[in-house]
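Reply to dn_fold:

You asked what the input looked like. This is it:
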Amino acid sequence: MTDHADRPASPSQAPLKPKDHVLETGASMVQDFTPIKQICAHLNAFHVYADDPSRCVEANHYCTHLNEDVRQCLVYDSPEKGARLIGVEYLVTPKVFSTLPMEERKLWHSHVFEVKSGMLIMPQPSTSITPSAAWNTAETSEMHEIAPLYGKTYHLWQVDRGDVVPMGEPKLMASFTNEQTVEKVVGKPTNGELPSEKLCQTTGRDERFRIDIRQKRQLREGIEEAQIMQGELPCP
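and this is what came back:
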């Protein structure tokens, strides 16, 4: 357990002053937010701490395509208003990953298991009028593209331990690479379900986004398991 006694009171408890509301509204009308407007995808998954495989955190990625080989994502702790920016993730194709020095590759993780297990999703907005079947088709197509990518992720805000502001050094994050690595977080299920299913259910992730990880897994059975190159960051 982490002692939070010496931590400052949460700044999120204080509402914005009227002056700040005015500035915020005015800026959105006259300033140029082009980099943010390039965000084209919202992805949800779980990141596990590279130095502590018993800890993971739900991560909402808002991603931009820089080019065909590189994507960059802002990572938030939720998709709601007031969400905290907790980290960043960069995604590259195998073509780029293959050019990296072996020492650098140790900082990157694969996405094959996240995709195939159904843990990585592209949430459908609650306001969307797109039929679920059509959304699933689009999501599965996107997962075909994401499965072979490698990610490099750092979290600056450890919200899972109750930090009210970013504290300490950035943390390198990994991905789950098999059910055994998920088991280190949730323990061994006793009712026949998979550890990945237990994690998505106990955190409420699937309920909040109105999805079923088992259905996602079935829809992705046809996605090829990309060959993972030597040197990637192993999930401890």
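The chain is about 30% helix and 20% strand.
Hope that clears it up.
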